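Honest question from a wet-lab person: if I give you the sequences of every part of a complex, can you actually get the arrangement of the whole thing, not just the pieces? Trying it with mine:
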Amino acid sequence: MQTAIATVCLSGTLEEKLQAIAAAQFKGVEIFENDLLSFNGTPTDVRRMVEDLGLVTSVFQPFRDFEGMPEPQRAKVFSRAERKFDVMQELGCDFLMVCSNVSSDSLGGIDRAAADFRELGERAAARGMRVAFEALAWGRHVNDYRDAWEVVRRADHPAVGLVLDSFHILARGTDLTAIRSIPKDKIFLVQMADAPVLSMDYLSWSRHYRCFPGQGELAVDAFMDALQATGFDGLLSLEIFNDRFRAGSARSVAVDGQRSLLFMLDQLQKRTAVPVTGLPVLPPWATCQGVEFVEFAMDERSASAFEHVLTGLGFVKAGTHRSKEVTRWRQGNINIVVNCDKEGFAHSFNITHGPAVCALALRVDDAPATIERALGLLDQPFQQAVGPGELDIPAVRGLGGSLIYFIDRKSGLDRLWDRDFEPIEYSNGDSAEAGLTTFDHLSQSMFYEEMLTWLLFYVSLLDVKKTPVQAVIDPGGVVQSQVVETQDGSFRLVLNASQSRHTQSSRFLTDMFGSGVQHIALATTDIFATVEQLKVNGVELLPIPENYYEDLEARTDLSEEDLSRLQAGDILYDRDGAAEFFQVYTKTLENGFFFEIVERRDYQGFGAANAPIRLAAQTRLAPHPGMPRL
Ligand SMILES: O=C(O)c1ccc(O)c(O)c1
Ligand SMILES: [Mg+2]
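Yes, you can. This is the full assembly:
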């Protein structure tokens, strides 16, 4: 399969777009007409630029409002087409994509449209060119790929073919069966786009919310299965109109595009056991069994304050690194690593970001295979010097320049705590353990424009599912929140981003000079006992207003005793059927970071209903300078 990407996907000037496309290892490019019109140079200059970058202009598009026009407009559209063929000749492109007519002047009728395409095909063929027809979901007469196919079939010309654009087909919920019986050599182009499920007019949905396959919720896989049944092996191109992509980094969005194709096509060949020509087979999705540790990059001053918090939360110092200024803190199955070393990655991270999470370590089935898959998906590998006798734990770059380590049993990487650390023996008796058992979830705050990048990063590498995006109300604006999690819940990650500068999530980005882990939720099996112990340990919890408990009383059947226990502990509560959820928060620590403690009783969510209460409580304690005081 040949793959390509449309210039319309990316931000920047045409030159920047093409450079980003070449850097992301694409070969083919669809030049969107507006990118040519706004370019300050001739089509020949563009041709040279494309060639110098080792690219090929696979498609020029779109040619609009063509078929079914009455005279005198009909004569005009043909002369307009000839002008575009001239441009394409200069551009070195032999393929014009025509989208269905939206003009109120256009006349319906499959045969009329077919006759127009036959004539256009004749004219194109005279120049050694080809044309293909796409049904826009909002086309005036043709808005269904089956009608576009009938037009192409009746045009019956070798230079006239069909375009299948996954968005237009899936957005309308058109039945995919008919794709299977289209002869593959008449499908000249497949355009790929995913999108979130929204109820909105097709045009606005398409022009602002498309995204790369894997980032949205459309049935892209079913579309690919139907396409594969035809034996299609032609040109498959990404065509995304997305406001965030237009505001994001062209280079990183282009890499995301390549990653999404590698991921989608690899899934296709795994699902159907039919190899995709020219595509390497990736190791399977990495099975993640949870978080082995979270590492904080600290200096000595912040480390001592942080270790005081950890002690309050019931952690004990369980080991010191054999060659670095690094300690391991432990409670239940939770490991927190505090790195104060004066050299290496964590130190540089601390200099840039201040005290913050610099790495996560995930437990996987097979760490070498995970890294191989990551590299195959164009993720960035990371390596640094390893001390003698210490384990070389494979890692990739994650959010905000942080690291993700992969630890498995197979390669013996799980011996980390004995190999690299000198264990500290402690007796359980005199510790102030608070009954915390595991990492429940982590939340990462990021720039709004990079949210889809990291979503794709996680879903392509790990066997995780994503939930639909939720809008969470913060006193300073709206935060978009989306979860990726394993089926069994052993790994749960919340991605947060906001377009307002005043939300807590945006303020965190300013505080730590970049995106990162803003909060960590730790699990307990008895929230009331845990809260009691935290109070004994002197941990300050986030105060929750009385109104919240008044409302709980009104909308639940909790007993007065339960309600007063919740209120006394500043515990938030949620219920889903018979499932129950309890949450408490520490006050916000240095750099905008905080801990949450949760108890789940069969509950699968994250207490979304409580998030605005918590955000308001946090904002009250640390108002934003630019915001009115609450
Ligand atoms: O939104 C549009 O106008 C438009 C143009 C060209 C396409 O290929 C398409 O899918 C949509
Ligand atoms: Mg299209």
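Two things worth pointing out. The first helix runs from residue 14 to 23. The radius of gyration is 28 Å.
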